[in-house]
Design a protein that fits this description.
alpha+beta, six-stranded antiparallel beta sheet, 4 helices, 6 strands
Length: 133
């Protein structure tokens, strides 16, 4: 009986979601206006239409899109039309992901880290440490 109880407890622990695990979205960075209206879509980083776009999303192959509210607009604009992989915590209610990392797909099929919480923290720490006089 003790063995059965231990097995049930152990299996129960495996079924509890771990807060350390992150969700992942793979898709393309595009402007929200483009995704929702189908008009005024930037075709590349040099396209001046990017300036008119205020909000960027990651659109998946299935056509779902996710806001990435903790990433600066400039980071998203810099990666417009790129294939990206975002890891973080998904909020289905608001169709968003709080990013922990942003990687961009390279021509050889590998992923290159372009942004992470750790990179941002390191940069801010250096900025504030170096600017104190």
């Amino acid at each position: 009986m003790k063995k059965l109880m231990a097995l049930v407890v152990l299996l129960g622990l495996f079924l509890i979601p771990s807060p350390g695990l992150a969700d992942e979205i793979v898709g393309t960075v595009q402007g929200f206006q483009c995704v929702t209206t189908g008009r005024i879509c930037p075709i590349g980083k040099e396209d001046p239409v990017i300036a008119a776009e205020r909000v960027f999303v990651v659109i998946t192959a299935a056509g779902d899109y996710y806001f990435v509210p903790n990433l600066d607009r400039a980071i998203m604009a810099r990666n417009i039309t790129n294939r990206v992989r975002v890891t973080g915590m998904i909020n289905q209610k608001f169709k968003s992901i709080r990013a922990k990392t942003l990687e961009v797909r390279q021509d050889d099929g590998s992923w290159k880290m372009k942004w992470s919480e750790a990179m941002e923290k390191e940069m801010l720490d250096e900025l504030y440490r170096g600017g104190g006089g």
